[in-house]
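Hi everyone, sorry if this is the wrong subforum. Our group has a chain we'd like a structural model of before ordering constructs, and none of us has done structure prediction before. Sequence below.
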Amino acid sequence: TTTCANLRIGLVQAEKKVLLIDGDPQGSLTISLDHPQPDKLPFTLSDAMGRILMDEPLRPGEGLLHHPEGVDLMPADIQLSGMEVSLVNAMSRETILRQYLDTLKGQYSHTLITGTYNQRLTYQVLYKTNYNGYRVLASNLLTTNTYSFSLNALPLMQGEVVTDVYFDFGTVPAGFQSMSKPMLIVSVSPQATNGYYVTNRADAGGQYLGTWETGNTAWVTIVRNLNSTPKPTLPQTGY
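Answer:
Right subforum, don't worry. Here is the predicted structure as tokens:
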């Protein structure tokens, strides 16, 4: 909560449009942004996820709270603790939060959402660029909390881009796994050419009984310009 609350200040100063999502049923981030009684708010993250779950429509920006410092907030309250129970038998339950975030695409900068995990540990997030090796983005994060970071706010040189994001959990107990999956939300540059493609990859690895075990996957994203060329207006030739 402290990391997100302080990071928003730098992002606003960098003239970024920022959305904070409170993923804590205690509403700590919501309280820190001048809403001392989150349980009395008419609409919170649990309501938004419930709408997605029930396939009910969401108005653009519904429930977002606008703070005078120039950030938007999707608040949380104690109802969020019951959302896990509601998701037990839901189809594609791990995508519910992502589906809600999809409704906000294009309104905010590139965003990394860490997800949550079933064991209470601390971990760190690192990033690598085409110019430098891994550097720490954030540390001492709790696996039971969700964090959101804007990669646009990183102090990068001209031509430098983020190529890798790495979650370092250290030593974990048997059965350690994600509860809500991490996500990286990006926007395509309007200057990207039609047919431009990006190769995405995800790797997971760890040491088990002295042996390093790994798993990986890769896929390609192709940029398609679906804006059709307007038909020319032909002169009227008769009545």
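For your construct planning: The helical segments are 2-13, 28-32, 45-53, 80-87, 96-102. Residues 2-13 form the longest helix (12 residues).
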